[in-house]
DoxX family protein (Rhizobium hidalgonense), 137 residues
Amino acid sequence: MSNAIILIARILLSFMFILSGFMKLTDPAGTAGMIAGAGLPAASLLAYAAGLFELLAGLAVLTGFQVRIAGWLLAAFCVFTGVAFHLPYASGTELVNILNQIMVMKNITLAGAYILLATVGAGAYSIDARRGAYVAA
């Protein structure tokens, strides 16, 4: 039963990053604008890099490939993007401030979920298990 639950969790946790990564790769302008607004250099290049990372990491979680590594990387990504792009949420209109506060909370919560996934592993229904890389915790 727990392996089925881990599979369901992986599917749910992968959805946002697969979709977000695809959207960044097909239309990076909005992400590049946020990156430039945060004062980071090479905004377009970083937008494409973020999109590629999100897509590949999301697919890794979905398929159960290198889930422990992907989980730690996604947790770090969530914390970094929450702090770098959403934490100074007292800088816009009231609606923007509220949305940024929600995004910070979402990112920190997702980081916890990815740390848990990195700790537990991909489960029996995964590429990691087929490769012998998954050991039940």
Q: What stands out?
A: The CA atoms of residues 45 and 92 lie 26 Å apart. Helices lie at 2-26, 29-37, 43-63, 67-86, 94-120, 127-130.
